[in-house]
Amino acid sequence: MKTISTGKIHSLESFGTVDGPGIRFVVFFQGCPLRCQYCHNPDTWEISSKPKYLYEPDALLKEVLRYKSFLSKGGVTATGGEPLLQPDFVRDFFTLCRKEGLHTALDTSGYLLSDKIKEVLDVTDLVLLDIKATDPDLHKTLTGVAKDNPVKFLNYLEETGKPTWIRHVIVPGLTDNDEQLEALAQFLQPYKVIEKIELLPYHRMGIHKYEQLGIPYPLAGLDPLSKERLDHAREIFKRYSFTIQ
Hints:
Elements: E1 7-16, E2 24-29, E3 53-55, H1 57-65, E4 75-79, H2 87-99, E5 103-108, H3 115-122, E6 126-130, H4 136-143, H5 148-160, E7 164-170, H6 178-188, E8 194-201, H7 207-213, H8 227-238
Parallel strand pairs: 2-4, 4-5, 5-6, 6-7, 7-8
Antiparallel strand pairs: 1-2, 1-3
Helix pairs in contact: 1-2, 2-3
């Protein structure tokens, strides 16, 4: 008899518009192996923390189906935290979503890759892959982990032909200089599965969560990215014929 997976869920968003195409039901998973300096969801880091919700796949699907009429041009997105810390649940949940004709998107750092995660990707229609940096030292500084695994993950997406959107946060003084941006654009250019690049400006909207958790904010005093620098970064990537958002 098959064991029913249970998902540790931090929160749900019923009308998401920034995590994949169309209007989406967004599931924020508990737990993340990275500690990105600019993370705006530090309350999702600890998977051992008591989650706000515990769901079995069919119960979560019932929540989604309440909004199905609004999701005809959208679908469901798993994000976090890092949803691939709970691969059995994501696989089972996405399988049910697909049976209902719902588009499935996975927002991930690409830090984890295993046979179980490959099963998740088999039932994933679109991957939103967060690329932090191409420079190994900078990647370690930004996230606390090495960059090797995300590269292997992207290579697997290319090997399997999985539609992919790249997400990249532009942080003043860290990832916003022209050298770093050019290096990332050059690195990504050969990958045929990349449909779009989402350049995301650094913001300070999650600072209050650090205060509530009693965690020092790593980028205290850093101003948000200016519109001028964001526009400049977009022009760099357009030179490499990427579709930019």
